[in-house]
C-alpha cells in the first residue's frame, strides 16, 4: 500500500521516509486519547426546515440563483433523523468521541425571538445518546452556517456579528452546560473567510480583500467574546477552544526571499488565528504588512483588543489535510484557487497574495483528485511547530481525511484502501510527534458518514461510512471503518 505515497524521484528522501515509518509502526497513545470522527450540521444533519429551525445563509444560498450546481444540504446524510444509528455505529467501531456542530438557526431561528426548545431538545438527545454510548462530545458552535437575517445585513463583515455570536454562544452554554465536554467557538476561520470573501464560492460570494481582512478580525473578536461568556459560567468539567485549518508553511529553497515569503504565508494562513486565540494578541509584524498593502484598519478597536487579550482558549483544534508550499510573490492579484471540480481539472489548488507570497509546487509530491498535496509529515511538522511557538497547549486533530470517488463493489463492500493508507500515514506521524513531547490528545477522521461537501456536492466522499443516496440513505461501513477500529485497539495502551 505504501507505494501510493512514496513514488518519489528522490531516492534519499524515500529511504528516510521508510526509516521514519519503521520507527513509528509500534507507537501507542495512552488510554485517555480521544479517537473519533467529525461532522458538521449543514453537511450532515438535514432537516433544514424541521423542528422550528430558521433559515441559514447556506439554506439561502442553496435555494437561490447563485447555486449553479444545484446541490443542497436539505437532507444531507439525515443525521437529524438517524443520529441514534450513526452513534451506534461509532460505538461499534471503537470510537470514544464524536465531533459535530450545532446549527445556530436551530437554537435561535430569529434575531429577537425565543430560544427554540425543540432544537435544544434535539441536541440534548444527541448528547444523551453519546453519553449512553461512551462517546465524548466535541461540539462546534459555528461551522460556516449563520442565520440568513445576519447574512442579509453583512454577515461576518458586520461588526455586530461578534455580539450576536456571543449571545448565541451564551444560550448554548446555558442550555447544554457541562453535558458538552469540549466547546469549539469557530471552525476554520481562514478557509471560511477565503472561500466567502476571496474566492467567492461560499456565501456571500464576494471577492473583496478589504472585507476579508475585516472578517478575519471579526472572527477573532467573536471568538474572544464567546469565551468571555463561557468563563462567566464557571464550568469545572468543560473546556473551550477554536478549530483552525492547519497549513504548515514550507519552502523549497532556503534563501532570504523564500524565508520572507514563508513568514508572510504563515501570518496569512495561521498566525492571525493562533496568536490571538492562544497568546491574546495579533502578531506584531502583521499590522505593518496590512498597511503596506493598502488595507484600512480603522475597524480595529482598543476595546476589542482588550477582550482578545483576556479571553484565550483552553485547547487548539487543528484540521490537518496538507501543507502550504510557498515561494516569493511574482505576479497577479490576491486570490485563492480551490479545486471544486476534482478529476479532470489540471490546475493546482493554491494562493496568490499580492506582494506577500504565492503557492509553489513540488512535482515529486503526489496529489489527490482535487489537486491537493498528499503530504503526511505535515501533521508532525505542525505539532512540533505548535510546541515550539505555544508550549504545551492541548491539541486535537479535529479533522483529517481523504476524499474519493467511490461505490460499493458487486458484494456491497466499499474497499477504500487509498483512504486507509492516507489515514495510517498521518496517524503514524502524529504518534511520532506525541512521542517527542507534543501535547496532542485526540484525533478525528473527517468524516463520520459521507456528507454534503459544500459546493462539491455529494460525489466527493470522505466518510468512513458510505451513504447510499439512491437507496434510502442506507449506511454501509467501509473497509476503512473496520480498519480504524482495529488501529485504535492496536495503538492504544491497555
Features:
single chain, 494 residues, TIM Barrel, eight-stranded parallel β-barrel, 15 strands, 41% helix, globular, disordered N terminus
Number of domains: 1
Instruction: Note the quaternary state here.
Output: single chain
For the sheet with most strands, the description reads:
8 strands, parallel, barrel
CATH class: Alpha Beta
Task: Supply the CATH superfamily name.
Answer: Glycosidases
Helix content bin: 40-55%
Class from helix and strand fractions: alpha/beta
| Inertia-based shape | globular
Beta-strand segment tally: 15
Counting DSSP H or I runs of 4 or more residues, the number of helices is 16
* Low confidence ranges: 1-11
Distance between the termini: 28 Å
Label the CATH architecture.
Answer: Alpha-Beta Barrel
Side-by-side strand order of the widest sheet: 1-2-3-4-5-7-12-13
Rg from alpha-carbon coordinates = 21 Å
CATH domain topology? TIM Barrel
Mean pLDDT: 93
Q: In percent terms, what proportion of residues is strand?
A: 5-15%
Describe this structure in words.
- The chain is globular.
- The two termini are 28 Å apart.
- The longest helix has 25 residues, at 209-233.
- Residues 1-11 have low confidence and may be disordered.
- The protein has a single domain (34-246, 262-320, 373-490), classed as TIM Barrel (Alpha-Beta Barrel), CATH 3.20.20.80.
- It is 41% helix and 15% strand.
- It has 494 residues and is α/β, with parallel strands linked by helices.
Amino acid at each position: 500500500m505504501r507505494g501510493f505515497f512514496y513514488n518519489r524521484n528522490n531516492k534519499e528522501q524515500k529511504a528516510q521516509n521508510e526509516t521514519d515509518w519503521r520507527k513509528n509502526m509500534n507507537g501507542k497513545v495512552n488510554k485517555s486519547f480521544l479517537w473519533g470522527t467529525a461532522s458538521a450540521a449543514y453537511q450532515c444533519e438535514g432537516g433544514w426546515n424541521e423542528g422550528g429551525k430558521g433559515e441559514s445563509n447556506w439554506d439561502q444560498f442553496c435555494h437561490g440563483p447563485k447555486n449553479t450546481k444545484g446541490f443542497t444540504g436539505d437532507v444531507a446524510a439525515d443525521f437529524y433523523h438517524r443520529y441514534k444509528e450513526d452513534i451506534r455505529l461509532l460505538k461499534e467501531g471503537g470510537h470514544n468521541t464524536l465531533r459535530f456542530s450545532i446549527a445556530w438557526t436551530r437554537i435561535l431561528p430569529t434575531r429577537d425571538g425565543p430560544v427554540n426548545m425543540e432544537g435544544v431538545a434535539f441536541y440534548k438527545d444527541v448528547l444523551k445518546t453519546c453519553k449512553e454510548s461512551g462517546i465524548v462530545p466535541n461540539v462546534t458552535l459555528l461551522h460556516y452556517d449563520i442565520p440568513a437575517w445576519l447574512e442579509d445585513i453583512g454577515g461576518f463583515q458586520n461588526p455586530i456579528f461578534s455580539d450576536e455570536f456571543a449571545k448565541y454562544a451564551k444560550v448554548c452554554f446555558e442550555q447544554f452546560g457541562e453535558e458538552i465536554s469540549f466547546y469549539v467557538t469557530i471552525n476554520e476561520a481562514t478557509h471560511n473567510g477565503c472561500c466567502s470573501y476571496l474566492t467567492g464560492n461560499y456565501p456571500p460570494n464576494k471577492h473583496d480583500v478589504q472585507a476579508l481582512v475585516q472578517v478575519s478580525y471579526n472572527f477573532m473578536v467573536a471568538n474572544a467574546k464567546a469565551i468571555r461568556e463561557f468563563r462567566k459560567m464557571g464550568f469545572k468539567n468543560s473546556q473551550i477552544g477554536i478549530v483552525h485549518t492547519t497549513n504548515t508553511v514550507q519552502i523549497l529553497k532556503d534563501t532570504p526571499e523564500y524565508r520572507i515569503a514563508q513568514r508572510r504565508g504563515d501570518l496569512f494562513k495561521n498566525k492571525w488565528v493562533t496568536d490571538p486565540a492562544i497568546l491574546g494578541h495579533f502578531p506584531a509584524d502583521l499590522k505593518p504588512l496590512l498597511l503596506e498593502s493598502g488595507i484600512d484598519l480603522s475597524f480595529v478597536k482598543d476595546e476589542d483588543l482588550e477582550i482578545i487579550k483576556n479571553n484565550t482558549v483552553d485547547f487548539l483544534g487543528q484540521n490537518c489535510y496538507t501543507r502550504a508550499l510557498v515561494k516569493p510573490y511574482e505576479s497577479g492579484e490576491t486570490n485563492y484557487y480551490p479545486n471544486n471540480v476534482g478529476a479532470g481539472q489540471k490546475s493546482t489548488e493554491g494562493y496568490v497574495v499580492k506582494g506577500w507570497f504565492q503557492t509553489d509546487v513540488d512535482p515529486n509530491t503526489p496529489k489527490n483528485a482535487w489537486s491537493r498535496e498528499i503530504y503526511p509529515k505535515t501533521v508532525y511538522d505542525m505539532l512540533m511547530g505548535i510546541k515550539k511557538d505555544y508550549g504545551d497547549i492541548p491539541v486535537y486533530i479535529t479533522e483529517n481525511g481523504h476524499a474519493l470517488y467511490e461505490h460499493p463493489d458487486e458484494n456491497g463492500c466499499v474497499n477504500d484502501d487509498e483512504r486507509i493508507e492516507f489515514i495510517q500515514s498521518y496517524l503514524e506521524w502524529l504518534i511520532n510527534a506525541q512521542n517527542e513531547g507534543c501535547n496532542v490528545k485526540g484525533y478525528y477522521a473527517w468524516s463520520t458518514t459521507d456528507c454534503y461537501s459544500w459546493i462539491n456536492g455529494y460525489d466527493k466522499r470522505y466518510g468512513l461510512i458510505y451513504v447510499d443516496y439512491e437507496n434510502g440513505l442506507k449506511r454501509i461501513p467501509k473497509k476503512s471503518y473496520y480498519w480504524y477500529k482495529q488501529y485504535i485497539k492496536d495503538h492504544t495502551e491497555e
